[in-house]
Design goal:
With 410 residues, the protein is α/β, with parallel strands linked by helices. It has 13 helices and 12 strands. The protein has helices at residues 2-15, 23-41, 77-102, 117-126, 140-145, 150-157, 190-204, 223-234, 254-257, 280-297, 324-334, 336-346, 352-375, and strands spanning 53-56, 62-64, 72-75, 132-134, 211-216, 239-245, 248-249, 252-253, 272-276, 300-305, 396-398, 406-408. The strands form 4 sheets. A 6-stranded mixed beta sheet has the order 2-9-10-6-5-4, with helices on both faces. Strands 1-3 form a two-stranded antiparallel ribbon. Helix 8 (223-234) links the parallel strand 5 and strand 6 (239-245). Helix 3 packs across helix 13. The chain is globular, with a radius of gyration of 25 Å. Keywords: Oxidoreductase, Pyruvate, Thiamine pyrophosphate. InterPro entries: DH_E1 (IPR001017), PDH_E1_Alpha_Subunit (IPR050642), Pyrv_DH_E1_asu_subgrp-y (IPR017597), THDP-binding (IPR029061). Pfam families: E1_dh.
Length: 410
């Protein structure tokens, strides 16, 4: 863009030399032409341009029993704009969930993901929908990444039947079978063994796909994780164990709960890779590397160095075990959305005004989803007994006295 501006100015000077136009007039001419060019396209550069270019990854990968991928990644204008759009929608969605919880539209547990968006979005950039994902209870944005909608998330949070789990799962149990997203799981660390099972099924069925089992640093000491790693290594299962290390398991800092907080090394005999989880392009590159490894050599552990802005859940203010200065410092220095914003502006792909318009669109999308979800109906009473057992077994469900309430399961 800068070179184009210089050429435009040179052209204007050449065409106006005979009239000896003043420099200020030439600048106004060039500025006017630039304004018309930007206005006609809506962006300073084509945001849908898929021409690849290479970007350096600033924070080095750290490898365990493997050679890390190179510190350069290929991207495009379209991909970066899409990253910004999706991450900003996720951020607005989680902020809206915060407000809805405080207004008591959302009840029960609610774990927000704002700050960690680069992990979800970067992973999806390296995967296909044939790959499977299973995670813990901080799962709202993962559902979006797997092809779900904001409405499905908001409706589920408010217990509406238009939710992704028909209003019966709530915050911790998002689900999208079509997108190979197997939830939202409330038992700490239990999803890691299920992830190994998904990978076993993929290998048994000879699918060219991998499974990602996500867990937090708080779950990294759970026994079932090591059992799952062991069987996965024995059978060379195509599974990627992803530790989203946001540095606090509930209110406990990692250094207080783990003798060795280098979670990417925890697999011992299983190779590992540490990734800057606040850099969406670093995540994309790292997960692409991990997928190739899992398909050809078996399991691998990824540690995503990330950060959550909210507390562990909505019942946790998040400021009793860390300082507000720490939180604001991460926002200023490492925020994943701001990193993409700066890259888009530095590459002159968009203007500040363009990004403002994208932000307005994201806010409008979330606001509309919230309003639609509020108007949705709650599940019928009989739905409490569906999706519990396999259909057709002619089983009866009994109430506490086994007399008054007897319901045949469908």
């Amino acid at each position: 863009m800068a070179r184009w501006r210089q050429r435009l100015l040179s052209s204007a000077c050449s065409s106006s030399s005979s009239s000896a136009a003043a420099p200020q007039a030439l600048l106004r001419l060039a500025s006017s032409a630039l304004s018309r060019q930007s206005s006609s396209r809506g962006f300073a550069a084509a945001p849908d341009d898929t021409t690849p270019f290479v970007v350096d990854i600033p924070v080095p990968y750290a490898g365990h029993r493997c050679d890390p991928p190179e510190q350069r990644v290929e991207t495009s204008a379209k991909e970066l704009v899409d990253f910004f759009k999706v991450m900003y929608v996720m951020r607005r969605m989680e902020i809206a969930a915060d407000s809805l919880y405080k207004a008591k539209f959302i009840r029960g547990f609610c774990h927000l993901y704002d700050g960690q968006e680069a992990v979800c979005v970067g992973m999806e950039a390296a995967l296909t929908k044939e790959d499977a994902i299973i995670t813990a209870y901080r799962d709202h944005c993962t559902h979006i990444g797997r092809g779900g909608t904001v409405l499905e998330v908001m409706a589920e949070l408010m217990g509406r039947k238009s939710g992704c789990s028909l209003g019966k799962g709530g915050s911790m149990h998002m689900y999208n079978k079509e997108g190979n997203f197997y939830g939202g799981n409330g038992i700490v660390g239990a999803q890691t063994a299920l992830g190994a099972g998904l990978a076993f099924a993929q290998k048994y069925n000879k699918q060219n796909a991998v499974s990602l089992a996500l867990y937090g640093d708080g779950a990294a000491n759970q026994g079932q994780l090591f059992e799952a790693m062991n069987i996965s290594a024995l059978w060379d299962l195509p599974v990627i164990f992803v530790c989203e290390n946001n540095h606090y398991g509930m209110g406990t800092a990692e250094w207080r709960s783990a003798k060795s907080p280098e979670y990417y090394k925890r697999g011992d005999y299983v190779p590992g890779l540490k990734i800057d989880g606040m850099d969406v392009l670093a995540v994309k590159q790292g997960v692409r590397f991990a997928k190739e490894h899992a398909l050809t050599k078996g399991p691998i552990v990824l540690e995503m160095d990330t950060y959550r802005y909210h507390g562990h859940s909505m019942s946790d203010p998040g400021s009793t075990y860390r300082t507000r200065e720490e939180i604001s410092g991460v926002r200023q220095e490492r925020d994943p959305i701001e990193r993409v914003r700066k890259l888009l502006l530095a590459k002159e792909i968009v203007t500040v005004a363009d990004l403002k318009n994208l932000e307005k669109q994201a806010k409008a999308e979330v606001d509309e989803a919230v309003n639609q979800a509020k108007e949705g109906g709650q599940p019928e009473t009989h739905e409490l007994f569906t999706h519990v057992h396999v259909k057709g077994l002619k089983q009866l469900a009994y109430g506490p006295d086994r007399k008054e309430v007897i319901v045949p399961l469908p």
